Amino acid sequence: MIQILNHKLSLPIIQGGMGVGVSLGNLAGSVAACGGMGVISTVNAGYRETDFDEHPLEANLRALKQEIFKARSLSQGNGMLAINAMVAVNHYEETVTAAIKAGIQAVISGAGLPMTLPKLTKGTGVAAAPIVSSGKAASVICRTWDRKYQVIPDFMIIEGPRAGGHLGFSRDELLSDTAMDTEEILRAVLTAIAPFEIKYNKKIPVFVAGGVFNGADMAKMTVLGASGVQIATRFIATKECDASEGYKQRIVAARLEDAIIVKSPVGMPGRALNSPLLKRLDTGEKLPAMRCNLCLKACPHGEATPYCISRALIEAVKGNWEDGLFFCGSNVGRINQITTVKDLMTEITTEWKEAIIPDAM
Fold it and tell me: Which of 84, 142, 157, 162 could share a disulfide with 211, CB 3.0–4.6 Å?
């Protein structure tokens, strides 16, 4: 049992936030119902709204609230519900504020260092959690939050180099396999946050993501000091996932070598399936925005953009293999069937307990 503010996780598993539209209310609510933390991705949550092209902010905020309400209904008061809000997007503060008003219990924030997150969460009873990829980042965030807001993170997520989506490492590090491994990052983060835990007399639960596939991996991390893990790609291959059946089948059919390092239009490297879109982009083809909604702060927009990542992710969640960007983790090739959230959570936690205390099972 893990205590985060006034909330309890009976299973130390966070379902990673996946956008656009891959992890919404149905998946998040189903994970929370099992005692874990379900996470709704805020990135263009309103892509299905009829006014999304004309009024993207209003459509996204409306849809986000609806997805939070759906997740709350499905969770039946179990586990926790969080949003994943990327620092790199425009309207970051409006999105986090809307989610808090809708009753979300935690805000997980990455794709940049969430230096101002406590300004939005302090005093609300909503947990604030940064995503980091180094001990240095963990230290900088704790120092800043301590100095400016007199708080420290309620929990923290380490995202290692084997994760899917946008990654906090250089492209060269990822391609040459020279990025610090997750176990080293965990040790560095635990060391970095220790003085702040002492100062506030409060434990900061640390969850590890990136390359965590099963209960044995989870046991390895918890033995090293992690409180739990975050898993994303495996949850795509569940009946409850909000993505299309086409997306799920692509995940199930993928081989290990199909997961490649790609360059995002915002300059960050990421990991995705080697889809026809990526192969065409390698030849110089461009995929411009049909109508730019200025979703990312760093996107060059217009003709300078090799492809519209929002458009590509929307096509993926719909199952459009030819024009979609299918983010995934490095272990995607190990997934071979569609299961249920309950069965997946049970499988991972059973393996974890067997690995930790083999004679007790």
Answer: 162
* Residue-wise pLDDT tens digits, 27-43: 999 999 999 999 999 99
Task: Clarify whether residues 239 and 250 are in a common domain.
Answer: no
Query: Crossing angle for the helix pair 182-200 and 215-223, nearest 10 degrees?
Result: 50
Neighbouring CB atoms inside 10 A of 352's CB total: 24
Residue 128: left if φ>0, alpha if ψ -120 to 50, beta else—which one? beta
The model's pTM? 0.93
Q: How close are the terminal C-alpha atoms of the chain, in Å?
A: 18
Distances, alpha carbon 47 to alpha carbons 40, 194, 239, in Å? 14, 41, 21
pLDDT digits (tens, 9 = 90+) for 102-139: 999 999 998 889 999 999 999 999 999 999 999 999 99
Instruction: For residues 255 and 270, state if they share a domain.
Output: yes
Indicate the helix (H) or strand (E) that contains 33. helix 25-33
Fill in the amino acid letter for 183.
E
Tell me how many domains the chain contains.
2
- Burial (CB < 10 A; 0-12, 13-18, 19+), residue 285, is exposed
pLDDT at 333 exceeding the cut of 60: yes
Say yes or no: 67 and 159 in one domain. yes
> How many residues are listed for the chain in this entry?
361
* Boundaries of domain holding 267: 246-317
